[in-house]
Amino acid sequence: MSTRYHAPLPPESSMVDQRQFSFIRRCVSDLINGLIDGLTHFSGTSRAAVIFALQPDGPLLLCDPQNLLRGHEPIFRSLYVDNQQWRMNDKVSRDRRKFSEILPVKDPGLAGLLSNGGYSSSVFFQQWFTEHHPDLCSIGPTECWLEHAVWRFSHDMANDLDLYTGISGYFLREYATHAVRDHIIDQMNLLLGWDTSVRIYPVLDAVLMISETREEGSWPEGRLLVVDPSMLDQLNFLVKFQPYARPQLSNYKHVRKLLLTVERSERYLVTDGRSILGICSNSLPTFSLCADFRGRHGFLKVNRTKICSFADGRFSSSTYQVKLVQLEELLLETDLDRSDCYFLFKIVVALVHHAQQRKHGCTVVLDLNRIPVAISGQTLSPPLDLRKPYMLKMTKSLAKVDGALHIGADMHLHGFACLLDGRSFHGEDPARGARYNSALRFTAEHANIIVVVVSSDRPVSVIHQGLDVHGVCTLDQKGDCVYSLDRLDYWVGL
Questions:
Q1: Quick check: 236 pLDDT over 90?
Q2: Strand 362-367 relative to strand 404-408: parallel, antiparallel, unpaired?
Q3: Separation between Cα atoms, residue 490 and residue 409, nearest integer Å
Q4: What is d(CA 312, CA 162) in angstroms, rounded to the nearest whole number?
Q5: Cis peptide, bond prior to residue 382, ω within 30 of zero
């Protein structure tokens, strides 16, 4: 077992140094805890880490409580230990009052990670990291989140321990709406410049309120377009409301009723951020913000590009289209030909997405045995070749029937409405339904079987050998702990 090295404590005789070191640990831990909690609610289970040096000649320290950076040691050694060029920056101010002047640093581009960092007068160098989840509408809000972590750390270290309140971690925990707003502002400044009258926070509040407002029992559908007043002449208005009769955007129930006029169409309900101006066609101006309501959830878009989703009164990064990365990895680990893995993966993804769109549950059994196992249910003779589009379309309809689809390694459907049996074991989850636990039991007793379970309320699980490889969280959630700091030069040598 390798020895874990930590940044050495100051001498016990120096109480000032002891207090300062404890303050740094407390500050970093509060920020990481807040970042982890906030990003977990926004993007799913997330980890966070930071490397920093308070002074140009000081040690480069690391705080990585959940081993996010493990496996990247050679790159860190090359960038920050073997090469000391990062210590050379004459543009950094010495005046700690200018802590907010952050000089950005280049993203090292580590696989599977997002990062943001910078130089400042109070923290000479810092770089924050989190996971790049596959199910992201956009990396923009997450990058803004990390950028704010950089600013908060610089701010806290400039104030020093006597003025420390510990509030920065709470800011990061509740930063979702602010991260979305910051990303929108960044895009707006690029395309419109700084001079715009559109206020984003009221728009975001309105979007969340409208998304939760039913009309005759139905969730909202349709698109709300937010346009800067200077660009209204670029729109093709089909209907214009008179200035004295324009509904206010803050009147959520009225706006919800007006969404009925653009429901399931290519039209947009138009607002300038304050009132509803009318209805326009599908032609968009140079810059626009669109709230695309799709029932229980929806998407925010900048110029037709998704930046985040919203549901249940909050924003998130979910695309609501599961990527099934774990399934792809399991297939690539088998002895199947790569082209067969590709087609099997595409078949399952098509079935899963169809079930999600139709809002019904289904179970897909991928049987990778040379001779498919016998499963009770509607056995097909001959099996359906799912490489043929019309057969795949038929299978989508068969997925609605209670029971599982049985697909072999030959890319044929061997049965539907199949019942998955097995003996009870300790790995079951009483909080999940019969479909899920049946899949756990079945895969625990049969080799070379992968089961994909789609629940009617959207979660998707990939189950193999009695384990949920998609939903199992292996992270050690530390809570509001104070973490240790490692010296990076020791850590890369572990």
A1: yes
A2: parallel
A3: 48
A4: 40
A5: yes
